[in-house]
Structures are given as structure tokens and as C-alpha cells.
Amino acid sequence: MARRPSLTLEIAAYIAIALLGLILRFGNLGLLPLNAVEAAAALPAFTISQGGDAAIGAQPAYTLLTSFLFSIVPSSEFLARVWPALAGCLLVLLPYAWRDVIGPKVPVVLAMGMALDPGLVAIKRLATGPMLAVPILFSVMMAGRARRGSRGAGRGRRGTMRCWPGVVAPS
Questions:
Q1: I need a labelling partner for 76 at 20 to 30 A (CA). Which of 45, 85, 93, 129 fits?
Q2: Distance between CA atoms of 120 and 112, rounded to whole angstroms?
Q3: Closest of 133, 165, 143, 135 to residue 60, by C-alpha
Q4: CA-CA distance, 22 to 46, in Å (whole number)?
Q5: Cα 47 from Cα 6, distance rounded (Å)
Q6: pLDDT (tens digit per residue) in 71-94
Q7: What is the pTM (predicted TM-score) of this model?
Q8: What sign results for the dihedral spanned by CA atoms 40, 41, 42, 43?
Q9: Are strands 161-164 and 167-170 parallel, antiparallel or unpaired?
Q10: pLDDT in tens, 26-35
Q11: Dist. CA 116–CA 139, nearest whole Å
């Protein structure tokens, strides 16, 4: 008989933290108008969604994802900020991937800190492409580490990262 996964206190804590992160990042997301930087980032997405030609610029992921949203649903300040807010929610859940390396309690506290940190909440509510970079980079690193599994265990380097100028790679 297959073993059914059970809802542990740790998983319940991560679910509550994720919901808190969603509420803080999406609450009144479209209330204020876009500032000049956000408008400059959202304008190419709007132009592409209307069938026009626009330079994608230095933020291709943000521009293309947002133009896709704008083509489905009428554009708004809320939709211009959706992708960075989702990336911020992903960042809150990343400590869950580290629980086998640093234990079960520390990642829960770290996730709570990331969910409540006013700086991270404010930054992840900005409609700009660079706000997508950090959570996606860490997600790729954690996915690579999870894909490798326990290879490298016993060498004292499991879960560490090598850093070179401009490049971060899991060891």
C-alpha cells in the first residue's frame, strides 16, 4: 500500500508563510499609478500587446510575459506588477529547498523573515524586469541542486555555492 504524504507542522507553516507573502505582495498592488521607471518598463509590453513594434530592451522576460498578460486582459497597473510580485512569492518559498541542508527550523524562520521584510515586499512590488532576476536565479540554482540529489554528500561541500565575478553556481 502506498504511503500517503501527511501534512506536518512544517508544511503547514510554509503554506501559511506563502499565503502571508501573497497577501503582502498582492494587497493593493494596482492602487498607485506606475512611476516613471515602471511606466518605461511597461510601455514596450503594452505596445507589443497592441500589435505594435517595440524594442524589448534589457528586460525581455518582463516585457514578453507582461505583453502576454496585456493581450489577454486589459492592461492595468496591477497587471504591470504581477510578474515581479509572483517572483517575490517564489523567493519566499526558496528556503524550503534548503531544509535538508540546514535543518527544518532555520528555513521556516528565514522564509518568515523574507515574507515580512519590508524591503523585499517593496522591491517585489515594482514593475521592472530586474525584480524577476534574483528569485529566478535562486530557483534555478536550487533546481540544479535538487536534480543532482545527494551526489557530493560526504565531501563537505553539499549545498555550498561557488562564486566568481558575475556567476553563482551550486557546487
A1: 93
A2: 12
A3: 133
A4: 25
A5: 48
A6: 999 989 999 999 888 888 888 888
A7: 0.72
A8: positive
A9: antiparallel
A10: 988 888 898 8
A11: 20
